[in-house]
Each structure stands twice: as C-alpha cells, then as structure tokens.
C-alpha cells in the first residue's frame, strides 16, 4: 500500500482509530492531514504516536500529492461530507486490514474501508465508500451499493443486494437472495428474511418495518 500522505475528510474518533489500525496493519505510516468539516462532524484534536497528524480547517490548505478518505462511517454523514468536499482532483484511497480475506473475483470501488477479520466471498461487488466493520462475513454474488455501512458481526448471505446509504446494524443476519433498499436502517441483531423497501427503519427476528427513516 503506497500512501505517503492521507487527507481525512470529516472525522469521527472511532472511525479514525480504525483507519489508523488498518494502515498500521499494512506497515503504512503516511503523514495524516485531518480536515475537520465543522457542522458535519465534531472537532477532534487527535494524536497518534505512530503517525504525524496535522489539523487543518479548509481543504484549500492541502492538495498534496496524497490520497483522500472519508473519516466517518454513518452513511448520511459520509454522503454529506463527500458532497461538501468533492473535487475532480481528489483520488480516494481504499484501506483494508491485512487480516481480511477477499476473493480474487470480488471488485471494490474507491474509498472502501474494510476492517479486521472480514471475509468476502466470490463475485461480490462493493461500490464507492462502503464501510465494513470487524468480523463481518459477506457471501458470494452480493452487490453493495455506495455509502453503505455494515457494523460488526453482521453476516450477509449470497445473492444479496443492499441499496445506497443503508446502515446494517451489529450482528444482523441477511439470508440468501434478499434485497434491502436504499437509505434503510436495519437494527442490531435482526434476521432479514424478506425484502426491505427504500427509506425505512426495520428490525427484529424476523425483521419487520417499524417506521420511515427520517435521517
């Protein structure tokens, strides 16, 4: 992984810690520029002894020959920060923990973040800015659209489709062939046994629609 400079846009501390852990797992120690997008994320004065961390407030101060990364995991915040900062000059990094097992037939978009102990099976596609947290299993022939976040311990079976901007909670199980729409929240521990439409909050075993997603 050749990253000399990494500009992190918008910051949440748990996500920042995961990014640093994943870089360190690959013996990658770039110079870090933290771009706090006030109003989209809280200001965090973050230090790490293994990295040189610089805090700046405007993207005009940067544009080194480095890569960019979205420093939050919540789908709605990822989308807002990307829209605020997007520029054709930006090259977004994909950061993967070295303990992850990914099939050679899997395809990954830009800005993907995959944490430790993740398994991704054959012929699966993760589009731009997908975040996969630790100890997640994703089955074969699954399609995950942009800005999706999958929280720890989720198990996604084969031939599943997950729409843009959706959040999959901790420990969720999704059975074969299920389609989950865009901008959905699936609550922690749910078992998804039927298709879920766009723009809803759903949870339970079996997973049921609870209300419209207002986020």
What would you say this structure looks like, in words?
- By secondary structure, the protein is mainly β.
- The chain folds into 2 domains: 5-93; 96-209, Hexapeptide repeat proteins (UDP N-Acetylglucosamine Acyltransferase, domain 1, 3 Solenoid), CATH 2.160.10.10.
- Helices cover 11% and strands 30% of the residues.
- It has 2 helices and 23 strands.
- The chain has helices spanning 13-25, 75-85; strands at 5-11, 31-35, 52-56, 67-71, 95-96, 101-102, 107-108, 113-114, 119-120, 125-126, 131-132, 137-138, 143-144, 149-150, 155-156, 161-162, 167-168, 173-174, 179-180, 185-186, 191-192, 200-203, 208-212.
- The strands form 4 sheets. An 8-stranded mixed sheet has the order 5-8-11-14-17-20-22-23, with helices on one face.
- Strand 22 and strand 23 (208-212) form a beta hairpin.
- It is globular and about 45 Å long.
Got a strand count?
Answer: 23
| Spatial strand arrangement across the major sheet | 5-8-11-14-17-20-22-23
How much helix, percentage-wise, in residues? 10-25%
- Sheet having the most strands: 8 strands, mixed
CATH superfamily grouping of the largest domain: Hexapeptide repeat proteins
Task: Compute the separation of the termini in Å.
Answer: 35 Å
Give short descriptive properties of this protein.
six-stranded parallel β-sheet, mainly beta, 11% helix, UDP N-Acetylglucosamine Acyltransferase, domain 1, eight-stranded mixed β-sheet, 2 domains, globular, single chain, 215 residues
């Amino acid at each position: 992984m050749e990253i000399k400079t990494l500009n992190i846009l918008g910051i949440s501390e748990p996500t920042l810690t995961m990014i640093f852990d994943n870089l360190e797992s690959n013996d990658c120690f770039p110079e870090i520029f933290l771009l706090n997008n006030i109003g989209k994320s809280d200001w965090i004065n973050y230090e790490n002894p293994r990295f040189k961390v610089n805090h700046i407030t405007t993207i005009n101060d940067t544009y080194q020959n480095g890569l960019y990364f979205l420093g939050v995991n919540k789908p709605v915040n990822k989308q807002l920060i990307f829209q605020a900062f997007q520029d054709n000059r930006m090259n977004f990094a994909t950061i993967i923990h070295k303990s992850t097992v990914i099939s050679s037939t899997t395809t990954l978009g830009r800005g993907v973040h995959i944490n430790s102990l993740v398994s991704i099976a054959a012929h699966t596609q993760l589009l731009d800015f997908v975040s996969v947290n630790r100890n997640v299993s994703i089955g074969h022939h699954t399609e995950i659209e942009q800005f999706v976040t999958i929280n720890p311990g989720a198990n996604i079976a084969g031939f599943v489709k997950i729409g843009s901007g959706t959040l999959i909670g901790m420990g969720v199980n999704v059975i074969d062939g299920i389609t989950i729409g865009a901008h959905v929240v699936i609550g922690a521990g749910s078992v998804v046994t039927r298709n879920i439409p766009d723009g809803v909050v759903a949870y339970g075993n079996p997973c049921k629609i609870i209300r419209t997603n207002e986020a």
